[in-house]
């Protein structure tokens, strides 16, 4: 990978967990590395990082994201709980649709980002990040205590498979009678997929900027796990010219090109959604004095008074050595430190380097900057996000 830092991939404990698809990754030549407490494929022997990245941009990539945590939140006050711990508006979210949101602490800082799906007025499905498992569960359980028995919060394990790329629908349609052309980005369905016996939760979603689907496949027993393995292997074996398994390396560079955040890098508990250029996550219905979500006072103040936010998340491009997280950013004359890099990588799609950064708002898009790399100030430029336009399937 172009960014396989020790911090990201090699800091997990020795007793690593395995996803239901682990056996298939090993058989396919996956280079297995520790990631968020799991043993995950970062690359496969037959592919370089750039090959993998470009394959997803042109065909279909399979990403095992089973390490992420799945939640079921139900009960009379399930909506009230979610609207306290996130700024989402569940009243306006249509049934069987999902939305990106963020878990918020009392100061408006981001505990984690998440995807919330509405299955009923009192039934919600949520997916959160693998690296935040313990603290997310502790946070949600504590917040749920105020609602007593009117909220039920359960987590569950299973196979989570992301099928990403411009030909994702063409591939997946071969395995279901459901008309996938009628399911748009953000919508979900419960479907049957051959050869899986159990019903699968399908979401038209993903974190690559490409069209695609995320499948939650039950894997609570040996038979279900075998079904998920058979499905994964069938996709690859039957359509090798269309689909390949893809590891963590390309998943990271794809989301970076798409301008998407990674928790622990662009998002932390010290950063509010407004500071992270995610004000769009707070809809108008949640912007009044009675909003009631954690940190609402601070977040709404920042929305209403732009002078309260001095730095913003923005893009940076450069040539030469690639910027990495925590590298300092200076004004073009080198006299003033104005920000820092959060994620950086060479871009397989564009060439040159791309990075996300927090930079003083006084410095506009198009401004020349300097990035401190290996003790030298290197040329860079502020640019808008995303670097590569998303290719999402919308009506």
TrEMBL record:
Keywords: Aminotransferase, Mitochondrion, Transferase, Transit peptide. Its main location: mitochondrion. PANTHER family: AMINOMETHYLTRANSFERASE, AMINOMETHYLTRANSFERASE, MITOCHONDRIAL. It catalyses: N(6)-[(R)-S(8)-aminomethyldihydrolipoyl]-L-lysyl-[protein] + (6S)-5,6,7,8-tetrahydrofolate = N(6)-[(R)-dihydrolipoyl]-L-lysyl-[protein] + (6R)-5,10-methylene-5,6,7,8-tetrahydrofolate + NH4(+). Its EC number is 2.1.2.10. The glycine cleavage system catalyzes the degradation of glycine. SUPFAM superfamilies: Aminomethyltransferase beta-barrel domain (SSF101790), Folate-binding domain (SSF103025). The glycine cleavage system is composed of four proteins: P, T, L and H. This is Aminomethyltransferase. GO terms for biological process: glycine catabolic process; one-carbon metabolic process. Belongs to the GcvT family. The keyword Methyltransferase does not apply. Residues 314-388 form the Aminomethyltransferase C-terminal domain. Residues 21-283 form the GCVT N-terminal domain. It holds the Pfam family GCV_T. Substrate binds at residue 214. InterPro entries: GcvT, GcvT/YgfZ/DmdA, GcvT/YgfZ_C, GcvT_C, GCVT_N, TrmE/GcvT-like. It is found in: Mitochondrion. It comes from Spathaspora passalidarum (strain NRRL Y-27907 / 11-Y1). It comes from the Eukaryota. NCBIfam families: gcvT, PRK00389.1. The keyword Repeat does not apply.
